[in-house]
Records
---
Amino acid sequence: MYLRYFVPALFLVFASVTYHTTAQNSSSNVMLPQSFPNTLHLQNTPDSSNQRYLSVFSDLGAWFGYALPSNDKKQSWGAFSGPMLVGSGNTWLAAALAVPQFYLNNASNPLQYSQSTTQSFISYPGHLYQSYQFEQVTIEMRLIFTSANSTLTQITLHNTGSKTQTIRYNWQFQALYPHEKTLLKHKQIHQTSLYFTNNWQYEHYSLNKQKFKVKANGSQTFYSFQTLIQDSSKTEHTSLTTAQKQLENGQQAFQKNTQRWQNYLQQLLDTPTKQSLIYQNGLVKCLQTLVSNWKVAHNGLPIEGVIPSYAPGYFHGFWAWDSWKHAVALAPLMPNLAKNQVLAMLHFQDKHGMVADCVFADSLENNWRNTKPPLAAWAVAQIYKHTHDTAFVKMVYPHLKQYHQWWYKHRDHNSNGLCEYGSTDGTLIAAAWESGMDNAVRFDEAKIVQNNSQAWSLTQESVDLNSYLYAEKNYLSQLCQIQGFTQESEMYLLEAQKLQKAIQQYMYDPETRYFYDIDLYTQKPIKSQQGPEAWIALWAGVANQEQAQGVRDVILDSLHFNTLVPCPTLSAAHVKFNPQKGYWRGPVWLDQAYFAIKGLHNYGFKEDADQLKHKLLHNTQGFLNSSQAIHENYHPITGKALNVPHFSWSAAHFMLLLRQQ
């Protein structure tokens, strides 16, 4: 039976404890979310519904987010920007959908925000905060997520005057996007429901009491509860009992949220070496990035996972090798999410063993033209390292085994044990996508040949692919040992030894002291360019010491890879080196840089690895000492952040480097 038929039920087991996955920390120091203000800049007020690149705060797997109002948009002060819907191009429902207005004593006009109003806007791990100080009253507002489709806003009114004051409020609703509106008033609960034309339903709940007498130097706190779901029938509503419970137990909800994020931070910052504050801030930014891209099961995605980035609107699905990398970083912090990230991709394994390249809420968008490099066994081994969950290993092992075998059945054109990247539709572009390096120079002259009715291969056997497969054999051997499959474990080790000899013999060039892809027919290295595929052999442990020394020397050469931000995806000496617009022709991708640094460590080049890591951390624009978002990749010469912000695997590999994993 294939995993797709029974994973959803298992998902319910993992999801039930996702919010409590961090281990108890032996340290007596409690890491409070308030210790890390504005590690990410989350102040944005949209001018239109389709401003997709504005940053938002999201949590607990929500497919939407909110932001703090911009400093220069006083008309939006006093409320939280949004919500912004993730996916389908991204859509802002409003500059600020629910806006509270406050009236002091018997005033007929609400308090007015002006340039003279003392205000504060702060994003913390786990919540947004804003405050406004008027002449006789201070207003504080906090927003948290209580579930994947619900948020809770806490509003505290402080009377700073010398006499008791009456403060009343009401809610206004305004949208950038067309909507219908209904108002329902019950004995204790006031409900506003908005229905948007893209089938999203928003509900807002507050207690009917909207007037408070606040003594001098006293305060009054109340809550509003919001839900946002996609519901084309418009028949599902949050029960009034649920809403009332949220409103009456708001303080407990905020305490629970704080505790959850304290647990995250304790586990995140409990590293083998004490981290400086600047590195702690970097780690927190990584965690916030991954959590903001965490998405629960939705439509065609039956299991939760982490998307590459919520920002552009087209990354609203799960990619295979992204998922494996996210899982490795999340394993010690949020192990159930890490497990579900693996299951989210294995769910889409076909009967032949292939795993889809990427999958979406709209299954019509799923890409079966190619898969991605095999890193799933690495992810599962790391999850086991941190959880010792043998049951999980037993559940996924048959599918990892079938995926491993698939490569040799469908991507080994001449059956010599060395695989090629390829496609299911016979196109070169899909075959290049399968490498994950999309438009890399190494594929410029490649051709494609047919293996069977549903499989084609490039005419070059790739060193990174076969190094990944070598590593996977070793990880599969470990997973067999965990299950007591001794004979099968030894089989993988023997296969790994055979593959290692072939890679060392055919894919390393003694003249240039570097690894290359080789021609499918001549078995000679294709030396048209030098890229990160060579150092994957070091990460996987497939090179001998002399070969590792040769690759190390090329990496450390400032003419090639030892640039301001080190380890670009193409040698800086190559004529096609183009970091600004090259995508995989020059920018530094954090996963590849991580593999280089980890590979150097593997072969004893610790000082070299530490030097590259320091340059990578300190020269990437905006990562440290800044609230700038983590980006998809970086310019190796200038350090400039490039392409998509809030990028998950960049955050994952920054995190792995800082935690020395």
---
Amino acid sequence: MTEASESPSPSRRKRQRQAEAAADAGTDPAAGQSRPIVNPLRKLDFLSSGQLEQIHEASLSILARTGLVFNSPPALALFRQAGARVDGQRVTLERSLVEAALATAPAQFTVYARNPANNVPIGGDSCVTMPTGGAAYARGLDGQRRPGTLADVENLTRLSVMSPEVHLLARKAVEAQDVPVAVRHLECWRTVLTLGDKPAVSGTVGGEPEAEDVLQMLAALYGGEEAIQDRPVALCNVNANSPLVYDRPMLEGALAFVRRGQPVILTPFVMAGVMGPATLAGALAQHNAEVLAGMVLTQLARPGAPVIYGTATSNADLRSGAPAIGSPESAISIGACAQLARHYHLPCRGGGALTDSQLPDAQANYERMMTLMISVLSGVNVMMHGLGTLDSYLTIDYEQFVIDTELIGMLTHMLLPLEVSVDSLALDTIHEVGPGGFFLDAPHTLRHYRLAHFLPRISLRHSHDQWLAEGGLSATQRANALCRERLASYRPPRLDPAAEARLNDFVERRKAQLLG
């Protein structure tokens, strides 16, 4: 059999590379369609089996001896009914309650998008990404850092829709500080639900009223409350107030999501040395206890409710007290928490493109590539803060967002299974070219080069003279131009007019009520 008659197997690697090549050539009509990272390799372990067991036992000791404060009467009532010890707002948990909850929490689930092509798998070997969440500031294409606006939320949603490397939309990739706080969640959720057709993620800092508004908006979009009951369509992020406290707004917003069968992400942010012990082992034991306590609550509220083991834990730079999210300790925490999540058979949220740098400079990119690689290789399933993060979560940067799509694209490509077949081994071509020959114009090369290699959109592989002839632009300048191109080429995904009308009607009525 000659190579001309050989037919490559329709592997996932080939299909992925065909999609990359088509998107790069601008010929893919669904260039922004979600394509999760898949890591089929053995996951990276930071802890030995003995160390993992020690941290697990230490966490159980914290839960049974010290306990946590749950600042929510409904949460406390659930713990009492389950037989937990409740003293005021402090709850202590025995091992049996933790083990029973772990037995009902699902290891994998799907979040359903308005466009079924963008449904998101959570768990297993999949890793999905989203922009940073909750940034106060935006650094625009003019290079100026300023308070975030609703226009930024709109633009970042458009960029997310246009980027196949983005799988989840951020309700507040940046705070829309030009919108009154009372109705900010309505305007921002309306933005991501109408401009995008991928699932969205947000916390509910306004507590149960805000969560109920969001759930009603989702019901309006998807066709009624029954359409979203026990069918995940959005995720709610819940931050513990480390050390060992869950505040009422976060708790009651999470419980509203749990009652509808919508996933919650439990995410402590233990800054080692400030909000937890300075040693990573102690910080991880506390972190793990906080996650397990929240997980127990979700399963008491609704056994089988989808829940994600989250982490934002890192260290503080004790010279200044500032968080150090781009540190090696941050990367270790990501890997260790992903391993703990696998031990409990829970999906994991962590990591992302993390940095403490103020600009999309060398520091930003060597720190974020470390945390990105550790996140993917250690088995993180959801990367919040996967694109655009600067300034220890405080700023989202347009240029960095686009650079991060390239970094994620590189990682996605790197993890595609290597195809070894009669065609890819190319023995006939090697024989025909022979010693001292030239492969560049071989038919096999012309047939495969777009599929065989990652083709960057920002990184350059030119000679110095060619680079100068094309303007001598830096990577951030090229990212700026590509960002402008993507925003200009955005086309809104199709939205059912009746669903849009229901959504807008609800938002306008609630705004009138909240603003009086």
---
Amino acid sequence: MKNFIVSARKYRPDTFDSVVGQASITKTLKNAIKSKQIAHAFLFCGPRGVGKTTCARIFAKTINCINPDENLEACNKCESCKSFNESRSYNIHELDAASNNSVDDIRNLIEQIRVPPQIGKYSIYIVDEVHMLSQSAFNAFLKTLEEPPPHAIFILATTEKYKIIPTILSRCQIYDFNRIQIEDIVKYLEYISKQEGIEYEIDSFHIIAQKADGAMRDALSVFDQLISFSDKKITYKGVIESLNVLDYDYYFNLTTAFINQDVSKALLIFNEILNNGFDAHNFINGLSNHLRDLLVCKDEQTIQLLETGNTFKQQYLSQTKQCPPEFIYEALEICSACDIGYKASKNQRLHVELALVKLCTITGKKKSDVVREIKEPEIELTPEKSSVPVDTKLKQPPGNIAEEKKTEKQKQYTPDSKTISSISIKEALKDVDNVPAKNANVEKQENNKPGISEKKESAATISIDELKSYWDDFAESIKESMPRMYSTLKSHIPTINEKGMIELELSNDVQYDDFKSRIKPQLVSYLSEKCENTPIEIDLKLGKEANENKIPYTSDEKFEFMSKKNPILNKLKQEFNLDFE
């Protein structure tokens, strides 16, 4: 019976050009060989299974090759290459630092370094998992690593670079290996499948690549496992069954339920997922990734970030047309909040189900907002019953101007056969405000009256009890998002003066500026809506004791405050020429 060799060993790259996903590193190493500028110590660091030890072996084999080709690859014909391929080379030594991490092991290595190579020019020492060396072993290795014999080259490999002491790092050329891209893994799996005569579905390789998380060795291990599972026929259904991966169709169906506001269907799909043995936390993370993929499909420039097969790529492109960007943004926020609070929740299933219910209400909430904006309050005006407010009679222009305005208004409000015989009260008030005043002096006198604003509509038509009720409701609505403003609203009660204006007296300048810039426009809009779209204006004032009891904030204000209580501080500052920050 023929011995089975796993794909990770059988198809391990043996030339620089066959290394997958590390083009920049292999190019640098080849240029170093070409220019004969080979350092005495290298440090290869990066995640597992990305080719650190493989590159170290290829580099060691190439620099000892007697007849390298034009592309600076080993010839595989000379005695050095043959001995390396047959695992009998005495020029390349591999040491596992995980099991040889003591000072005595490093001393034995140092003694071995003194022996020159039998064939070739260099003796290469590959130390894997070098971060496992003890502190004393690192210290014993320092001198030899800095000034080795001319024939000795060290290649250190590690997955945890941060554990290596800085004195070792400073003596090495450092090469950072990247995670291998999904497309590169898929292409390599296709190559191996063709070599082995295995039938496959390309979507199944994308699942394997995602499961490998950038490690080619992990991908090849899963590949061998699936060959045994499926009898040399790798299918998408077989992969998700064997690897216990959630099918894409679940996420597509859930998104459709969210858009259609179908809460029952969403909960039933989630129940089916749990019954199939999937973890709820992994499910919510997968749903976040699905929404992220829908988002990147919105733009042609970002669609390249979608890491799926062509079959599912078309499904993403089709479903993203049904999802507005606002829906995806809010859905991602809900999923992120669910992910953060999952471990802290005592009833984790209910926690996820509540997130699904919220996702189903997004589109309904958006539609209700649109309807609320469209349905503005309107007043039916007929030619017989329409009238002008009493205050506007004083503002009618004299003579021909009044007739022209009247003619224009008649043209504006005359309904034709294609329109409804009704107008908006906002448009009517806007036209009235645009009419010139009858007497400029009268208008000037009215505007100069103290305590009255330019527009009479700004006077509040609201009782003090209603105002306090609306005030408290608004404060509660911003309690979580703006706690400081909530405290200001609760601690300062508004009043209504004799002329119907809302007045609010604040304690200091900071509260005044903060209230005016952050919350006043929202509060005015809220009160106006509660008062049936009546214009509202809030007059902000500073309390009489605001300046007297002003809290010092800056360094100058603090020193002035302290010097009033202790005048000797001024004298101390002047005599010793002191300063403060």
---
Amino acid sequence: MVFNVRKSNRKIITDLPRKVKKIENIWIPMKDGVKLSATIWLPEDAEENPVPALLEYIPYRKTDATALRDSLRHPYFAGHGYASIRVDIRGSGESEGIMYDEYLKQEQDDALEVLDWICQQPWHTNGVGMFGKSWGGFNSLQIAARNHPALKAIMTICSTDDRYADDVHYKGGAVLASDMLWWASTMLAYNARPQDPQLVGDVWKENWIERLDKTPPFVYEWMRHQTRDAYWKHGSICENYDDIQIPVYAVGGWEDGYTNAVFRMLENLNVPRKGLIGPWTHEYPEMAVPGPQIGFLQEALRWWDHWLKGKETAIMDEPMLKAYMNDGYTPQTYADYREGKWVAEENWQQQSQQYEPLYLQSNGQLTEQPATHHSSVHITSAQQHGLYAGVFCPFGLEGELPADQRMENGYATCFQTTPLEENLPLLGFPKLHVQFSSDQPLANFIVRLNDVAPDGQVTRMSWGVLNLTHMNSHEFPEKLVPHEQYEATITLNAVGYRIKKGHRIQVALSPTYWPHIWPSKEEATITVNLNDKTNLVLPVREDQEIDDNVQFEQPETTPVLEIDQLHDPSHSRNISYDVTTQQWTLVDYTDEGIRKLKTNGIESGSISHNVYTIREGDPLSAAVNCDWEIYVGRDEWQTKVVTNSRMTADENYFYLANKVVAYHNDEEVFSKETTEEIPRNHV
């Protein structure tokens, strides 16, 4: 992903309380002989005056890919009296071994050994904190649940407590087509990069070939588990929140793909906990867009100082949840800033929210009263519905956010209110209760919640999906009996949004949402009964006095690494339609550019090209193709990896194919192709 260091409203800090030294590479031995690679930032006098430690443990290559990002926060923490440690997971970066999948028990076991190692160092005292964004947020939770005595608190950013229901694989029991293969193809390419010869010596090439040969495409295992089985329960801390016995600070953003988990963890964890939700995409809050950004390094330091140093920082005297309430905005596929205000909740319990129901009417209205004459409406399939949804988990690039939903609404069945007489603030989970029948045994139900401006522009506020065969259980799905009556609840993504006076609330219903959701094998028509059992409930939140006390410092950072930008980045996202074949095509292209780190001379970059195609009226035509080119080199040592991943399906099977080709100085040194046929299971 393109990495931008945003400098607006940013204070550059050059004088830290303690001078910092950096250990570029140190090996942490595991019991089985594998060595993990770490970079450590320390106060210069740490051996004479030992310090607590902070651990970030991720697979994204500290020597090149995250080097710039790491240089923002690790020196800051070290300068404030911490050993800040960045470790590459087994099978990634310079670390030895093979990575066979994400979040394996081996990954957690290694982390426990890393914690043991930290505790044995002469510069360490008083415990360890663990933090990370995305993968590092996931495993911070997972490792906290293993209860190592040295781990005293965590910060989990842009992560989830539920690997099945709320990650890049499945959503609402449906296959997340936009991300299932894309993320697997990303890790296939990322894992295929070699170790740095300057750090490991001549064995780099032998190790590289072994890594290329043994690291599997993760998508095969993900698609073998289409229900919530033991595979997904592993690493999902929601299976038993009481496994976590240390304080948790959970952070998310409204444009991120993982915000729902913040609310669930605040409600269900039984430890000291904090939640923070800004307007942000999948990035750290001091640099994420849309703004406003906050001084998240200072906020993190307050957390660590409280739990690792016993300082009085007042952080635990503040409300449990701080969230940014977006003011209503017009649809934008990119936003640098969102108008709004910070709000706070002393405690978060979903059942204590104020819900206001709106009932669907046969004339297309949403009203406060149920329909007096019960009727029904047919929700029909349109395979192209969803192309303007944006990406599932935006990183802050141009074109990632949902476009004007008027381009979607012709393919859905919509209901809307009259213009609001006053502002309506929402905070929490909207839900649609629905009484329905389906003409097919397999069907998805997608709900979009929209804000309709007086000029007709339509902004998507939230969305949700339910694979209707999963309405009673994600673990034990049941086919629908065609035309039989059912009742279900579709929970939409959490929202923090103030709908403006004069705007309308709109709900849009459909059985399809491509490319986010892989289509059912038959086009389904869902008949929705319009009565008191079919209604939209909204989490209404009035302003409170406590809101006026929410404040954060401005972002600050230590100086970052110097780089040479050898090739500029670019990004595009295009939709096209072939009227002769009735095929819709979405092409997402990202050129990360190539940059050279002046500290170690490493050059790195990547290009990803993702194509999603589908034909009108033909759910079996759905196809995803993901191509990557990824570069790592230095002077006369240059490597390139080219990968291709493809996913299609017929009535009975998903068909998956992956290819990896590796080059050293333009000479092909490795090539491997694999395929899998995996039965469809209630999807």
